[in-house]
Amino acid sequence: MQASQSPVANLSPALLIGDAWIGTPDRDAIAVTNPATEEEICRVPVATDSDISAALSSANEAFGTWRGSLPIERSRILRQAAQILRERLPEIALGLTMEQGKILAEARAEVTSVADLFDWFAEEARRIYSRGVANQMPGLDLKVVSEPVGPIAAFATWNFPALVPARKIAAAIAAGCTIVIKPAEETPNTAVALGRALRDAGLPPGVLNILFGNPDQISSALLGSPIIRKLSVTGSTGIGKILARHAAESVMPGIYELGGHAPAIVFEDADVDKAARVLAASKFRNAGQACLSPSRFLVHEGIHDAFVDRMVRLARALKVGDGQDEGNTMGALTNSRRLTDVQAMVDDAVAKGAQLQCGGNRIGNKGYFFAPTVLTDVPDDALAMAVEPFGPVVPVQRFKLFDDAIAKANALPFGLASYVFTNSNATMSRAASQIEAGLVGVNSCAVSHHESPLGGVKQSGHGREGGIEGLEAYLVKKLIATDTTV
To answer: Which of 99, 271, 478, 484 is the 20 to 30 A CA-CA neighbour of 378?
Structure first.
């Protein structure tokens, strides 16, 4: 019996401009590092001013024909791309783990989710409707039609290098828009794999363009161009504000999926074991590098100690190491910046009186590994309670009264995800209605689905990705009023 071969990642990032893939031999390049080994694994080409201009022209030219393409054709291409992604799953997942650091099981799940996302938008592309409007003027026919908004400028972060770009790309393609996207330079190969799958599925040249390079240079050129009609960004609130200022110059609308600091409120009547298990699984997924990850733990004083004991045991049970090793259950942080920032946040909390229950330090001296960490009695002035840790850190505070927990949950200027654990229907309803967030999980952290909208309130952004709202975001409404008496 012939032994099965292990997948080999195709680490060859390139710019995609129109019909051309442009690699590193033709451009300056940035090193891409494996977070588990700190070794360079490839280099990503840097777009020139001419490249950016060419990408804009390509998107503009392609939009002239793509906007009129049949929805059934857009649907077919997305479905075919989904099938190609499933066929290439082992290779793409391995490349994702090598450049981003998460364990292979999570990488496979992410790529599979993207294939499912493409299928979802393939279906939605066939459900773009017009409608007739009743009016009070005889002989006047009113019709509202949905049209693609135009070429899109998109910016994606590195923590989910397949899913984040895919949400923007799939929705734009389904709506009949063209798109110029700048994925993260830390994780270029995964986005390029999506582009190759779409091109191999028959996506016409220019509908999707991919740029890497200097963020300021690319964002200024794209958002300063009259060709671009809408912005879509996933990133920190700080980055979102910078891009919003650029977009404001041309009154450009945008979809902003920005940072959060998700409160997890565990009430006295909650199932402590279930709450700890569900929250730990969500918290330590991707080493805590997820904008939807629970990041502030507000636990009723009556069950505080039991919850902490369970959380500490779950944290210590994790096996941290290279994501390519199937035996590991948590991988590396993606870059050295995260390692420095997470350590500083833990040290700050301890210096201000927090109790370190487990973890709190880097693991080893090679690779960006940080121990799963639980902190208790974290004071309000600790950095961890004001700034999203974006790492495997569980800062816990006690509360006594319902109103106190809600006040703490709503105290920050963020409102992306939030979580409530209770066995009381009254508490579920009351808490879910009073928490200021775009997403509320009740006895669950499963708040992200292709079929439902994802987005936040306050400084966590506005606009929605996913669901029917995710397609509507790339469409504009046009009223056509026709005098039928002529």
So the answer is: 271
